[in-house]
Amino acid sequence: MLNVPASPSKAPRRKLSRTIRRQQIIEATIETLAVRGYSRTTLTDVAKCAGLSQALVNFHFETKDTLLADTLGYLSEEYRLNWYTALERAGPDPALQLDALLRADFSPAICTHSRLAAWCAFWGEVQSRPLFQEKCTVDNEHYSRNREAVCSALLAAGRYTGDPVRIARVLRTTAEGVWSDLITMATPYNHREALATVHCCAAAFFPRHFNAKGLLLTAAPKRRRPGRTL
């Protein structure tokens, strides 16, 4: 005889509640990392930030290491989904693809002071923590291969010369340097200037496609279909 739960409709709600609670704790961890840094962050701090009891935090994450590893995984997946979605929406044109990748790094969803500070906290621990290094390496390699492929396609399409691997690396380190500026400068420039900076970098390699203001459209815009609203 099958053991069927008396109220199966409650199971999804319990599962959803657990997922939301873990996300709440992870978001509080990001905020705490931004304020206290990696070494000074404690489960007690996270619980206070989340407005929860420490016992409840311990129920979902037994140790600080577990919580921080899952927080890094959460941030990594959020970042991957952000750039991957932007790349998919850009279509087949390599110039549009590169522009989408550059803009994705400064999307309001991921480019916040707390998230950038949390990333910096994790980067400071990568060399001494194999788990973090493995996670960051895998994600970076996947992202780098895609950006290199886009740069290679744009070099060919625009008849430019250059090494796509090095160009992709320069663009990545420029974006990371701008991220660092946004959280370390006493008076950081705004996101518009941040994006203009990486566009300026892209213009050095692809001057017929980019300038400091962004992507230079080389094709006529598509006509709107009658009755269609954008």
Tell me what you see in this structure.
With 230 residues, the protein is mainly α. It has helices at residues 10-40, 43-50, 54-60, 64-90, 94-104, 113-123, 130-158, 164-184, 191-205, and strands at residues 210-211, 214-215. The protein has a two-stranded antiparallel sheet with strand order 1-2. Helix 1 (10-40) packs across helix 6 and helix 4 runs antiparallel to helix 5. The longest helix is centred in the first third of the chain and has 31 residues, at 10-40. The N and C termini lie far apart (56 Å). The model is unreliable at 1-14 and 219-230 (pLDDT under 50).
Characterize this entry briefly.
This protein is mostly helical and 230 residues long.
Q: List SSEs in N-to-C order.
A: HHHHHHHHHEE
Tally of DSSP helical segments:
9
Overall SS class: mainly alpha
Largest sheet data: 2 strands, antiparallel
* Sequence of strands across the biggest β-sheet: 1-2
The residue fraction in helices comes out at: 55-70%
Mean pLDDT across the residues is: 86
The unreliable regions are 1-14, 219-230
Radius of gyration equals 22 Å
Query: Judging from the principal axes of the Cα atoms, what is the shape?
Result: elongated
Cα(first) to Cα(last) distance is: 56 Å
**What share of residues are in beta strands?**
under 5%
| Count of β-strands | 2
